[in-house]
Predict the 3D structure of the following.
Amino acid sequence: MKTESRSRATAVAAGALALIAVVSGCSSSSSGGGANAAPAPTGAAADNPSAGASPAAPGSPAAGGAVSAAAWAKWKLQPLPAPPAPPADKPIKLTKTGQVPVFSSVPTTDKVVFVTIDDGQEKDPKFIDMMNDLKIPITMFLMDDAIKSDYGYFKPLQAAGNSIQNHTLHHPAMSTKTFDQQKQEVCGDQQVLTKEYGTAPFLFRPPYGDGANTANLNNAVQQCGPRAVVLWRETMQIHDMQYQGAKQLHPGDIILVHFRGPKDLKGETMTEMFGELLSRIQEQGFAVARLDDYIQPPS
């Protein structure tokens, strides 16, 4: 796979990026389409991180009892509030046919954010230990070129309740490809992920967010099986969050992270980077909820 910076430069040179700005990594900063972010938290909820928090719902990765203080201390972190019970009426409802929605946040007043992790290049066993200890729900958008060296690494994360979604075979800037090439990228990854993990992805994320709002990509996604295109509001760098607009989280924001290690993180490990992410979320009093719990798949 080409380096991220080279791919990004190619996409920009082609003038094909549909989004506003490019940030480091697999991402390009995007306000997305569809659902809008909720207003910034104010008042008691902003002052009290645990205000309104309720235990996680059974079956979610954060269920199974509260995470112990010792588990948070093991990773040198302050505890996050527990996520509320999943809404009975899912704010995002998907259909079996027709144009797929594009969204970068979830319409909710719950003081929650959603963590998504892309690619799959880094396969740090300590990250699985961290997720087992802290029970943070994540959604994985996996790309075959990055994961084919060890499909099995992601199965314990999936078994913990974290879904695996589509991120193309080879990570191209999609708007630089023909419709047939885009379809091959999406359908090919869909087939691999369904075979390896036993469940067909129902969400798709285009590399760099490129082409997200184009007719070609939407048609390709429709024909390959996913029923929504998922973008993001924030991206996590090595130590800092990169925001769009105001430098704060909002209820329902989707955050983009990557499976990366010391080679790409200037010597930092994935667990160290992820710990920094959780610290930024904790400082603003948010819980991490499971994205799937806020989406109604096609019936």
